[in-house]
Amino acid sequence: MKVNIDIDEKHEETIVTIKTNNWSEELEELINLLKKQKPKRLFGVAEDQTVLLDPKDIDYVYAEKRKVFAAIKEMKIELKMKLYEVEEILIPHYYMRFSKSVIGNLNQIQRFELSFNGNLCVYFHSGNKEYITRSYVAKVKEKLLMGGQLND
């Protein structure tokens, strides 16, 4: 697949043109991705109150005892969603799967250390830490090398 981008002040709006000789599943996924608007916030519950959460402020989201929580600094806020539903919302915000039960914000990573068992211990700017299991380490490293941090 070839991608051409033409950035010029004469263009008044963004136009996407796809030229192909046949329809494919990859093309359908691309169309769905382009059409999908990413939600700007999540809703959480803290002390019986609904709280608006900005994805860029969340360090990681994890599942524990059949509940899903967002870790923001020293706070743990419950999300009334399934982990896979949260993952679909957060993927465009530079999140990746760290393990079967954790999705992490790559922009909040400060540093990481390799553990003796092949896992990575990730330290976030807030002081929180979480582990990336061996099966996800290569994908996370590749993503970090390709893009580094996003500056919104």
From TrEMBL:
Any one GO MF annotation of this record: DNA binding
SMART domains assigned: LytTR (SM00850)
Keyword field: Cytoplasm, DNA-binding, Transcription, Transcription regulation
Residues annotated as domain HTH LytTR-type: 47-146
Family annotation (InterPro entries): LytR-like, LytTR_DNA-bd_dom
UniProt keyword Zinc-finger, yes or no: no
Protein name (Swiss-Prot/TrEMBL): DNA-binding protein
Lineage: Bacteria, Bacillati, Bacillota, Bacilli, Bacillales
